[in-house]
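pinned: reference chain
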Amino acid sequence: MSHFYGQYRFPSLRDASPEGKISKFDLSVFIMQINRGLFEGTISLPEKEVHKIAGLVKTEFSVYKGNGEHLFVDSDTEKVIENAIRKLSNKDMAKYVPARDEGIIYREGKDPVLFCSLAREETGFTILCINDESGCYWQSGIEQGESPVSMKSGKALEATQLKDSLRFVLGVFMMRECFPDAFKDGLPRMIKQPNWYKRQKNTIIDIDHIARTVCPHVRKGYFKLLSSPRFTKKQGQVIFVREAMVNGKAKHTEKQNTQKRRTQ
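pinned: its structure tokens
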């Protein structure tokens, strides 16, 4: 069966490029223009919002130039991740600090999502840019009291308003933290795409590998964020909680078969 993934179009980078052509974009010139506009007052947006937009453009440019990764997620993997984060509230999700990383996540039949996570332990500052059908969102320093901000409307979002795409991106980071060996270099089998991705750093999540190592717990388990102060050494860490007695059922089946053979 063929897999179809939509291409990320780098919308913010195109808007910031001369004549809308990314090939003509110059990062140093862009930064100089931003600083000059802020100094001369020719930019009407608040300085904080300007820096957020500039950060998104720089992230897109970095990924466009080959930095970061292109992470392909098939429909089965998507269901596994969504199931694993089902017990985490949006408030807990908003407190999660992912590792430093950037790239684009591709899901079958959905718009690609750009992500950029810059974790600084000394300040607890986290940035996450995503682009989806609802616009661009910026999550910064929620543990310090700041809420995600919609770059499209400029309005702050409550933690309970985290979009599904933002939850999914955080779920991917949690999956990598708990199961790093499941992330493999390469492309999905039977992929139907143009050649835009082939020279990039491509990664897939090998669910078969997960199944061999922790199956059948992974499909029914869930992630848990240790946020309570009683976790003095592991506070803020994500763990994977497995459902109990799955292997027990398998042993019970073997016992039944043995008894049946003895009866015969």
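why pinned: Residues 211-219, 245-264 have pLDDT under 50 and may be disordered. The two ends are 44 Å apart (CA to CA).
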